[in-house]
Amino acid sequence: MNIFRFFGDLSHLASIFILIHKITTTRSCRGISFKTQALYVTVFVTRYLDLFTSYVSLYNTVMKIFFIASSCYILYLMRVRYRPTNDPSIDTFRLEYLVGPCVVLALIFNYGYNPTELLWSFSIFLESVAILPQLFMLQRTGEAETITTHYLAALGAYRALYIPNWIYRYFSEGYVDPISVTAGLVQTGLYLDFFYVYFTKVLQGQKFELPA
Amino acid sequence: SHEHREHDEL
Q1: Which residues of B fall within a CB distance of 8 Å from A112?
Q2: B1 pLDDT exceeds 80?
């Protein structure tokens, strides 16, 4: 554990609290992609199956349980409690274009041909693209509520902080996980456009609006 | 080898 990873994980936690806060205070999940949230549940469930097989630390266990539980809670909020505010007609990204290639990549790149490792690898690849339906929706509508952009910024910061974490681990432990690093760099790259608008508009007090 | 390694990152 180093400060980059720790603050990365805190940023991830913050993003989830911001999202739940947005949905419950506005009593609306407008602007949030259900598909992206469903992908995150898939990511957490497939990756954290090792909860039952290997123990790393109390921190690790508590965080895993929190991520699974909170992502399921968000799906409940979107599908049940605030269902009328969820508009599937603008959440049109085709999931098979994401899930299919991730299955293939996991079968090619993994650390062992057993269910746990294959699902772990699948979850890493899937997480790297899980934000795409959300970004696609943002692109389509061309605008976002400020609170939604804070959610995305916290999520992007979490990914960005994992990069110095890997650099630190490479020098301090000689540890490199090529699958995590490659998928992580791709994932962080997907946020670059968003971050540009976030820094130049939202943090200057303007509304998040994309040029027409 | 990466076999039997633990995935300690979240």
Answers
A1: 2-3
A2: no
Chain B CB within 8 Å of residue A2 CB:
no
Tell me the C-alpha distance between A71 and A155, whole Å: 13
Q: Which residues of A fall within a CB distance of 8 Å from B2?
A: 111-112, 177
What is the arithmetic mean of pLDDT over A20-40? Answer: 98
Q: From residue A113, how far is each of A78, A98, A109, A120, B1 by CA, in Å?
A: 36, 22, 10, 11, 14
A56 and B10 in contact by Cβ < 8 A? no
Q: Would the CB atoms of A47 and B7 count as touching at under 8 Å?
A: yes
Domain boundary assignment for chain A: 3-205
Interchain CB distance below 8 Å, B7 and A120: yes
Place of tokens 């692109």: A139
- Taking alpha carbons only, the member of A64, A66, A58 closest to residue A20 is A66
Which whole number is the average pLDDT over A148-152? 98
Interior angle at CA A127, CA A126 and CA A130, nearest 5: 80
